[in-house]
Every structure is written in C-alpha cells, then in structure tokens.
Amino acid sequence: MNFAAFTDWYRKLAPRDQRILRIGAPLVCLILLAWILLPLQKHLSQARDQLRQQQADLDWMRRIGPTLAAAGPGQPTGAAKPAALLGLLNRTAGEGGLDKALTGTTLVGNDGMRVQLEHADFNRLVSWLYRLSTQQGLRVEDANITGLPDAGMVNASIQLRPGS
User: Fold this and answer.
1) Contacts 24+ apart (CB under 8 A), 94-98
2) Of 82, 94, 95, 142, which residue is most buried, by most CB within 10 angstroms?
3) Distance (Å, whole) CA 126 – CA 42
4) Which residues of 104-142 are buried (b: 16+ CB within 10 A; e: fewer)?
5) Strand bridging mode 112-121 / 153-162
6) Which of 109, 85, 89 is nearest to 162 (CA)?
C-alpha cells in the first residue's frame, strides 16, 4: 500500500474513526515501546548491579591474593582421619551457608575427600574454600566448577586433602 492510497483510505473514514486513529495509533506505539523498553531497562540495571558486585569481588581478591600467597598452604589440624575430615567439612559447610548445596562426599585415598556441591553460591563456595585452606590447613587438589544459568550459582566437585 503506497502513501497516496493510504491517504485516500484515511480521508474516506468517518471523522470519528479518523480521530480514533490519530489518537490510538500513537498510543499503541507508546504502549508497545514501553512494553519493550521497561524490561530491557530492568535487565540492564540488574546487569550493572552484578558487574559492580563482581568488580568489588575482583578488587577484594586482588587485595587478598598477595597475603594468601605469602601465608602459604597452612598447617594441617589433624583432620586427616576420614571421619574427622567428613565432620569438619559438614560443619564448616553449614557455617558457610553451603549445607543445602553439599550433596555428597567420597573418600579419596587415605586422607583426601571429594565433595559434591549442587546449586551453590559461588561467592560462598570461594569463601568456604579460603577458610578451609587458611584455618583448617586443607588444600584443594582438584576442582571442577560449572556455572549455572542462575547468576552466581555453580555446581562443583572439589577434592580436598590436608596440607603438608
């Protein structure tokens, strides 16, 4: 339909229909535009908040990194026995807010333990591993961490062993 045909069609409409079209068409356009832009604005705001949080986390990691490197792997606390290690992992996971995410543990060798976490908060997981390393003398021998669609959530399989 070309512009001339549209103009002829519009002129043939009743004055009431022309008025409805003049008011309704821009109104429909505004509603459609708002319907598209408002969710985009919300998602953009959430993305900015996540970026700020991740930048703050990165700054903290950069500040604490040299301290951790200088501290070394830590000293073992006698949690080498499997039952004691299992109890320690369960207790500290609960203290770190990861008790619901901790779905399984498996003995590895004489003194190691593999822990499975599902739908765990990444920041809590890193904090928990840091505490296990610095306060309990455990070291991470192997870790497989997979991000989930939910922001900041991961599945993880981590092998821990007392430091030497």
Assistant:
1) 96/124, 96/127, 96/128, 96/131, 97/121, 97/124, 98/124, 98/125, 98/128
2) 82
3) 29
4) ebeeeeebbbbbbbbebbbebbeebbeebbeebbbbeee
5) antiparallel
6) 85
